[in-house]
Amino acid sequence: PGRLLVQARVAQVTPEHVLLLAEDLTQARRLEAIRRDFVVNVSHELKTPVGALSLLAETVQDAADDPQAVRRFAGRMQAEATRLSALVHEIIELSRLQATGALEEAEPVEVDEVVAEAVDRARTGADAKRVRVSTGGESGVTVFGDHNLLVTAVRNLLDNAVAYSPAGTQVAVGVRRRGELVEIAVVDEGVGIDPADQERVFERFYRVDPARSRDTGGTGLGLSIVKHVAADHGGDVSVWSQPGRGSTFTLRLPVADSRPPEPPPSDTDT
Ligand code: ADP
């Protein structure tokens, strides 16, 4: 870290002149290390549900003459398979975001529509948990980007807000324009996040409480995806939280009529 890695090439242009080409490999090496880390993490994360599935399959075979037990274990197998499928889906999504780094197709996107679609998709989970979701704030704001990616980002924030909140609480999504930026805030009254963890929750596979995250079907990739989507749109995402009281995740994006999205910063490696 901090050291520059340079690859130099020498070419004789004329008998008197030599051309020296220096290429900075620091970034390339760093990306390579990030990719390697990712593969190691992915393998580790995939082993857990696959191991659980194989153990459950064995148990079902042993319990073949007990229909009730078979049903119970089959249910757990189903839950593991669902988790595995969510994990694979998010891994693919994240590697796609990591590989491209920039938006392939950017067009004007209505923030209202993004929020409405994300709320719609999160609704079933919220209803099942008896968490009320409300929306409010400014309407008619446009950003420049990819509608589907933005829906995924807001939905991830919403799914988390619901997952880490007790029944009977509320989740509010608010849209506010601040100069050249629009803020989409997802506010919950849930378990909250300790200050020490707040900085780390955007890292890949980071979970404050792995057991709880597992219960909620979490993969530890949701916020990492949100961070990438935000960066690819020239924006960012941040968290404010009081443990035991709730959390607010804010997605900040440049408004479309202010300026085109900037290329993503290079440190979106978590
Ligand atoms: P997961 O799939 O585990 O939810 P995320 O990347 O979405 O992964 O979130 C990382 C961790 O951050 C979670 O495991 C959880 O501990 C914490 N977290 C995320 N959102 C919230 C929230 N709204 N309230 C409390 N904790 C949260």
From TrEMBL:
> Which compartments is it annotated to reside in?
Cell membrane
Keyword set for this entry?
Answer: ATP-binding, Cell membrane, Kinase, Membrane, Nucleotide-binding, Phosphoprotein, Transferase, Two-component regulatory system
The portion of the full protein included here is: 116 to 385 of 398
MF GO annotations: ATP binding; phosphoprotein phosphatase activity; phosphorelay sensor kinase activity
Q: Could you tell me which species this protein originates from?
A: Cellulomonas shaoxiangyii
Q: What's any GO biological process attached to this entry?
A: cellular response to phosphate starvation
What is the catalytic activity of this protein? ATP + protein L-histidine = ADP + protein N-phospho-L-histidine
Q: What is its EC number?
A: 2.7.13.3
| Protein name according to UniProt | Sensor-like histidine kinase SenX3
Q: Which domain of life is it from?
A: Bacteria
